[in-house]
Structures
1.
Amino acid sequence: MQINRNILTLDEFTLQQLREFPQATGELSSLLRDIGLAAKRINVEVNKAGLVDILGDYGTTNVQGEDVKKLDIYANTQMMGVLKHGISCAGIGSEELDDVVVFDDEVSNNSKYVVLFDPLDGSGNIDVNISIGTIFGVYRRVSEIGKPCTREDFLQPGKRQVAAGYIVYGSSTMLVYGTRRGVNGFTLDPAIGEFCLSHPNIKCPPAGNIYSVNHGHFFRYNEGVRSYITACQQKTKDNGGPYTQRYIGSMVADVHRNLIKGGIFMYPGTTDKPKGKLRLMYECNPFAFITEVAGGRATNGIQRILDIQPTELHQRSAFFVGSKDMMDELDTHLAKAQ
Ligand code: AHM
């Protein structure tokens, strides 16, 4: 078999980036490679999800009498494991856990990053074979290196992320991550078990024609959001349309598609849940960071997501993210309705 040397694996790519910065310690590269490893392990289990009838339902005992772990718990364990055993992470926060986990060993205490993640977003879609994902944000800790990390390291605004990314377990499995230098996408090549650079330097098209929102909540959105959705429906070819509505209910898949093709994703607050459903730290901040680096925008309808100072780990936020021109038009509708 001939090896195509034009293809860069995730490991090769992160090392190549590192070579451009001789002063870099390689900790971030190493951390991203650790997450790539967890993603591969999670991917194997996600691909088996359709076999639950044969292998046993998650959270139950299978026909061989073995306990079958719930997939989101499995994903959480894998993410935690690679980060704990790696050399770059002082502690983690996870959507699955009530509180942060401080690793507190000599190597971890000397590591400069903490990671916040949602191990398996959209997990309600697993049993119907719809794409799901893992989302993560990486922060440089503010506490003293050499000591255990602290809560303050995690409660930082999203603009302090040094990297963020997601894995989408879909028709193919992709890992996309961004640093301030750009956003790059890697597709898992099952033949060699490696993520290979497939989408270099991703840019979010400034104009798009896809809007993604849960229409079922329409009458519980505020006037500005309803006005914008109505404008999306009324687009014609004379004013940048027509638009198409796409919402699969799995954020990683919805935002990934819009990032590549151009579009807007909205999870607004509703009359009964003014802050919506999504979690600022695990879902909104990483996507806001990636989208901004790719040229798009992200807000909670009032302010830039990345400027929000979090007060608690699991806080929720309304979320609007996507192509710049569409976000600008949304703002006009929100402002008019004030
Ligand atoms: P989860 O944390 O239970 O997985 O929920 C998060 C998911 C997102 O991926 C998706 O965008 C949203 O929930 C869909 O919610 P809804 O069904 O209310 O539109």
2.
Amino acid sequence: MTFKSDFEGKGQRAIYIAGPCSAESERQVVDTARALQSPGIDYFRAGVWKPRTRPGSFEGAGEVALEWLKTARVETGLKTLTEVASPEHLMSALRHDISGVWIGARTVVNPFMVQAIADALEGVDIPVFVKNPINPDLKLWIGALERIAKNARGPIAAIHRGFSVYNQNGYRNPPRWQMAIELRRRFPDLTLICDASHIAGRRDKVEEVSQQALDLGYDGIHLEVHLDPDNALSDADQQITPSQFAEIRSRLVFRKPSSDDLEYLENLQNLRNRVDEVDEELIQILADRVALTRKIGEYKEANNISIYQPERWNEVWEKCHASGLAKDLDEGFIAAILKAIHHESIRHQSEIIHDKKAKHHGKGN
Ligand code: PEP
Ligand code: MN
């Protein structure tokens, strides 16, 4: 499946979505949009209906806030976005001239609801942004994108906002970058935006997450921006002020997906050729190592010696570890490679013993 991806500026610069987590008042919505005009953004976002984890939190101003977004759009010329979690939300947002919508992480987990929204989008020509589901399930994310793409006429983008897991290790929603990279591998043309605010959960970390995404080749960045972040009615910890947004935006470096520059292309090709050669050597070296290991295995078997000899393994480990560190290799990387090599040796040597035993039994019978 291909996804319509004609977003202005795509591939040339980062696409920016910014705005408050929630629309709180007409003043706040219009003033924030005005404050974002000069750094420049592609879409002004504000949540009108807020999916909150627990009751009693601010659940959004509702339909009236769509009027505020309309005023902001008329006064600033910025395109507006809001979250829709049902066909009713979508219809209401369209009645109020919304420019585009996003489907939130809690809605994407439910294919019935995604399909209902997709049905309501039949023939509608507005951009639709699909967040990843809160659980790390790539198929569910792709499924939602496909349901929407089948019906909608406008461009479609995926927003990576991280995954809700029990053990948070420093992020509010750990990114699991591999998941988004795999999405990109399967659908290279699909526009991919990083929601650094919901991944980081902390304002001092949103820039780092944004740059990491751009380094990985994302097409754009989504950041929550509030005039008075500490007093925001939702997601106070992760929102930044418009001037912080302007600073971050000016520091972020966009990486182009490719270049037409001939010198660049030639140099890149030369480097890639060398990498291919090194890979070939690496495979040959691994094959040689396996062959040697098998010889040792046969020798041990013939002498009735156990396969696993911890002192020998410690020696190999220490030597390779020290030599890897001296060559500036990452400690975790060295450990992972050595472990994989060791497992493979043990597997081959066990196989030798197993085969010999089987032969032996065969003879006996
Ligand atoms: C939001 O963007 O404000 C939001 C609720 O996001 P998510 O669906 O990613 O939690
Ligand atoms: Mn939010």
